[in-house]
UniProtKB/TrEMBL annotation:
Cited PANTHER family: NONRIBOSOMAL PEPTIDE SYNTHETASE, NONRIBOSOMAL PEPTIDE SYNTHETASE 5
A GO molecular-function annotation: monooxygenase activity
Annotated keywords: Ligase, Phosphopantetheine, Phosphoprotein
GO terms under cellular component: cytoplasm
InterPro entries: ACP-like_sf (IPR036736), AMP-bd_C_sf (IPR045851), AMP-binding_CS (IPR020845), AMP-dep_synth/lig_dom (IPR000873), ANL_N_sf (IPR042099), CAT-like_dom_sf (IPR023213), Cyt_P450 (IPR001128), Cyt_P450_sf (IPR036396)
SUPFAM superfamilies, A to Z: Acetyl-CoA synthetase-like, ACP-like, CoA-dependent acyltransferases, Cytochrome P450
Stored Pfam families: AMP-binding (PF00501), p450 (PF00067), PP-binding (PF00550)
Gene Ontology biological-process annotations: amino acid activation for nonribosomal peptide biosynthetic process; mycotoxin biosynthetic process
Domain Carrier: start-end pairs: 999-1077
Protein name: Carrier domain-containing protein
Family from the record: Belongs to the NRP synthetase family.
Gene3D superfamilies linked: 3.30.300.30, ACP-like (1.10.1200.10), Chloramphenicol acetyltransferase-like domain (3.30.559.10), Cytochrome P450 (1.10.630.10), N-terminal domain of ligase-like (3.40.50.12780), Nonribosomal peptide synthetase, condensation domain (3.30.559.30)
Amino acid sequence: MILEPAENLMFLPFWILGDILYGRLDEQMERYLDKLQKLRHELWKDGLAGGLARYSIGRLIPGARLKTLNTFKALWNDFNDQAYERAMKLGMPDAPPIVKMYRQIQTGQISKLEFLHTMDETLFANLDVTVGNLSWNPVFLAAYPSVQEEIRQEERRVRENLDDDEWKAYLSGTSTMLMASILETARLKPMASFSIPQATPTQRIVGDYIIPEGTQFVVDSHGLNIGDANRGAGRAKYHPRRFLNQNAVSRRYKFWRYGFGPRQRTSWPEDALLLPSPDFEANSARSSAGRVTEKIPWGKVHDFCHIQNISPSIVYHAAWALVLSQYTACNNILFGVVLANRHLPVAGILETVGPLMNMLPICLHIDREQYASEFLQYVSHNFNMLSEYQWSKAEHGFSRNFSSAMAIQFDYESDNPKSPDSLSSHTRIQSGVPVAIFVGPRDRVQFNYSKDRFYNRDIRHMCDAFLSVIGALLIPNQKLESFFTQLIGPSVRQTLAEFGNWASEKTRSYGSETLVSLFTEKCQSAPQSVAVIKGSSEMSYCEIDECSKKVAQKLLKCIAPGDVVCVQADRSTNWIVAALGVVKAQGVYCPMDPNYPPALRDLFCSTANARVFLATDEASKTSKPSSCQIFYSVDEMVATQVPKIGWHSSVNPKANAYMCFTSGSTSFPKGVICTHGGIVGFEKDYVARMTVEPGRKVAQVMSPAFDGSVHQIFSTLSYGGTLILNDSNDLFDNLKCPDVALLTPSLARMLDSINYQNLRAIWLLGEPLVREIADEWASVIPTYNMYGPTETSIGAAYAQIYPGDPIKIGKPTRCVRIYILDPHRNLILPGMTGDVYIAGIQVSCGYIGRQDETGASFFTDSVCSGPGQNMYKTGDRGYWTTRGEVALLGRADRQIKLRGFRLDLNDLEVRILRGYSLATAVALARVDDTLVALVKPEDINIDDFRLRLRDVLPSYAIPGPIRAVCVFPMTNRGKTDYTAIADMFTSCLNKRIWPVASPPFEDIRSKIIDIWRTVLKLDINQPVNDTDHFVHMGGHSIEQLELANRLSTAFSKNIGTLQVVNFPHLRDQVALFSCHTENVSDYGTKDAAQSLSSLRHSNASPIEGVNMANLTDAWNTVLARHDIFRSLYCVQGSQLVRIMSSSCPKVRYVSDIGIQETINDQFDLSKDVPIRVYLSLDLLILVASHIILDLTSLQIVLREVELHVKGGRLPPVTRRYGDITRWNQPAASEDV
């Protein structure tokens, strides 16, 4: 018989793999798959034939090839759907891969297209490789009878035992002659010497090289397998034993380098435990090591393992893997395991005295759809694989930097009963692992931990969870998903309920009051009380009530209940009248900041479906959004007469009251509508409403478009207080007389708390509170940290802050429930870090017209279910403290709070790219309270870019420092590294070096000092130093405005108050006005806060302690004494000639230097002298063309500069370039 391997075996692996992927195929499915493989074969041949078929453009060219491709895609999709339905209908006990993958599609882990591509590549694309190997292997075996005979003998030895399990292990083994022959065949006869060109889907970093996205590459199979000299002299010959004769070190290295270890580990997250450190809370001195000991159901575990034929250690390690998955919020986990090393092939290994233990990392994946029995088998398989390499060392390619490890101890306790006087044996093991679990002897488990890293309470919860999961694993028919809900026992749930305010009925039902009824009640009880003050004018409750009634009467003719009405929020008394008039007319109040760009105001109004716009006066009618067909001014509305109507009786507590916008994630804003009952419920809390009561004065400081301003208005007017509006250009003028104020931490940072002792208390809201601000204010007046996303009716929690105490947001307010959940929305143990959710009547129903966004953030309450009970995912990460308060740790997404405004940085990046077509990419990051940006390409005009941003973004969302670059910093996984971007700017924003001032700086410094003396009315003899702070010397808001005006006039620059606030020290302002305006990004105008690049990859020289005057004079002297530095190269006719510039190059002063941009800024030698020297307060850069400066010349120049700085005399220039014959000859193009 003549064997034709390629023909006879071509489809054997195809059908075997089909059965594996889809379960045992019936005749109908086999016919369907056979039809598909023929179509796929034709497409493969077209691809190998070359031409356009290899490129994506081939899909756009009509013809037979495209028709075949589309037919295959449609049939391939249909076949997989049918195969899945068949597998589900048959209820196969061992679910084939297609079932598991369809579950991943349904849960959003992969897309349908990704699934189809994966299955196609698995079944079809690798077929030729397999067939090629199966075809060539018999050929080689026929040519080498000795190898053939060795494999036969190997098979006979296994067959003699007639053990199916051993036979299967042999067929899948990696250390057999059979496998060695397959590997050697694949090495010598790959499918092709070179692969078809492929493209990298994302940017990759290989060593120190960046491989850009889309780079074409091929794999040189011949070079890797045969051409590699490391394979030895016989690398071109058939020698299967090369795979059996690998030494132990080689096998170890390949296992960790390519197999079980880093191959999986590279794509997995860090294994840090999501638990707070004791540093977050006040704690007393403590020892470094802690221990928690409990008993495990030792007997039940052993009985179960005996039935399941597995080791008890598998149960313990599997249980810890599941617990660790919860504590790391990740399904891919890593921890250390301690292995005994007693099965090494060394004589007498079992009798050897002393420890041979080794700690290795194990990587496991948690599939929550798996059954317990399946997971235990999976863990057992991984441990068997790991045990083969338990003698590995870290230098073979793995790390022992894991957060937890487990060891199983031998049972050395006696089974005999102990006498009362006998000592109990125990171990006290120390390890460098933060959490070390020791199971045994017998029924004991011991958790050792670092008290500097973890609380005892949290480790006890962890130990309880471990015991709970062990018990669950002993029920093999449970899905893993159910395990995580069992971690929370009744007592822990009760604790969480008390922390989260779950039992309060006020979170579930609205009261009878509304904003209108509360205001009306105050009008009736104290009609002459002052409601609003603006400068010298006042409005009483009865006056503002009458005016707002007139506005409402007019609105009733043009709006229906629940319609949104946009109001010009210009901080006038008419603004307050309009807001009240809208809610009285059963409308929804939506503030429009007049400082927003017109395009943004139009977008807000169209998103809200608002048809009516209320201007505060006739002049502001011109700012009407284009989508509003109806518009009035409040002045004209209050001039009408209206009948008396009981407005409060017609408003329902469940009715919508106001609407505010937050930043979206797809470049469209998200409109949030909140109800009367929600805000009324929140403000029922005396402290939450800023202790407002009759006569209490409240400063209106917050931005009108921010929901904090809604709180200021309605909490004041609903409870008889007086609202103080601003009546000057000074942003903080109205803070000098009120009793309470609501500020963002960024605003509070600008103020000196000592000067506002008229305030009885202050509430800080809108962004994370930092220690510095909290301590400053809390040491002077009662200070409260308030927390609440816009979606939860202003506030959901608050806490009074005391100096030195940890920052927390406190406990829930009376009408909300707070949950902290895992990524699967299951409750987690107190102390664990999770996602913060808010539920209750204050929660909005979602985003207007944004179903996708609503579905991603608003969910049916999974903890306290009930009619209409929803919960909102805030995107914040936090944990419950031991006192039952919530401590926040940051965001889970790219949303930030900046000076009280919520910004989605993804959204801003999209908006910027749409608003400025010349930008190809933009990346935003936050540095303290400043937004910074990188933009591509690197030759973009920053001034024009910033100007265009003002048309598409509100002022608070426009980045400060902006840099144009050619490439963004990337993480190891090919994603934009936003942390690195922030670091690029941090050096200039927070870490400046201030040397002795040189003459150009000194002139500016003197001028600014004179302005400070004038504004602050300082004595002429009082010194003003570089470190002096304008506010600390007595300059407050009015003086800051005057300072900004005087600086603008003196330096012919438009300086705003914000810049004076952001640069309060004298040295800051000197730097601001000393910047060279060319190639420097502005910040408001020309910014002194442009980022400094890292010094690691440049030869730029930092300056420390050098006299700037001497350094500047030295460089200018050396640049002027060499004519070559004035060279220009111009074309005259067909000749390239040198001419001399009339001016010498001089030092260029800049505030900050972008190193990479500066050194890569090309010379135009027809216009630019070929040398540049840049000097900032802390850096000097010399950039020169090679045409005039080589290493020798550079050394001469640097020596001359050094000599001049040290006060020496420069020698005369004895030889000039113009004196050399070559200098006067025409230069050819090759010379340049």
